[in-house]
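Subject: Sanity check before I submit

Could someone independently write out the structure tokens for this chain? I want to compare against mine line by line before I put it in a report. The sequence has 298 residues.
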Amino acid sequence: MLGTTRTLLAAAAVAILPLTAVTGLATESAAADRTYSEYVALGDSWAADVTGSQITTQFTPVHCLQSARNYPKQVAAALSTPVFRDATCGGAETKHMTSPQTTALGSNPPQFDSLTSATDLVTLGIGGNDAALAKSVFTCLTTDPAATPCLDTMITGDTDVMTEAIDVTATRVTATIVGIRARAPHARILLLDYFEAVGTTGGCFPEIPISDADAIWLGNKLIELNDMLTRIAAATGVEFVDTYTGSTGHDACQPPGVRWVEGLVPFSSTPVGPAAPFHPNQLGADYQARRVLETLGA
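---
Independent answer below. Compare away.
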């Protein structure tokens, strides 16, 4: 789903194409009047819409795999925001808001460095890596359709390790929002969830080598993560962008042109080229942009 930097780089190694132009906006006519003067995008790989074929280093180093057509760039263009900074980076956790995210290929500065007292719009997509939901996807991979490696390792008695991790992550996301407010006290803050990557009724073995039981578990854990983000948005008074509800039927098991998130094979038809496994393709990024603009009333 959210992926690790190492996995994403392996998928993207086929082609690294720095792009700075944003085309194919989700909403070309949105927000004719300029409303925001400084927009900052923060978050992980689902905010960066990590890619293997549309990587840009305009805002972040190459290891972030940030897409030149991710939803923050589409939103900034649709709003005609005069100042825009995209700090999103694949593999980011809440700790990378205040600390650099460093790999052998470079270092992305603390994402909060992009915020100023003049920032008046912030989008935030974070939490999946803190809970390690991304890593669990790869733990679930199996050659046996009856095997349940995720259920076997994540559930001990009455304890679900992922549920506990999501509970811990709630405190971190709350602290992140507090940190944004301290640095950008006048900003309108939008917190995004994660849209459906795996359904809750089963998988599509062997196309994606995860058993039905583990796929159902994964789908339900994503709902738990999103429910936590919904509660945090309400408790902190920020606006919640629900991308999950409208994404049913566009999960990784669907055919090309229908799915909004790619499966295990690191190749996408939208756009054609290398992709990051279990991450949004361009259709998914376009959908995220639409939902953000709708929430903004643009």
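---
OP: Matches mine. For the report I'm noting this point. Confidence is low (pLDDT under 50) at residues 1-32.
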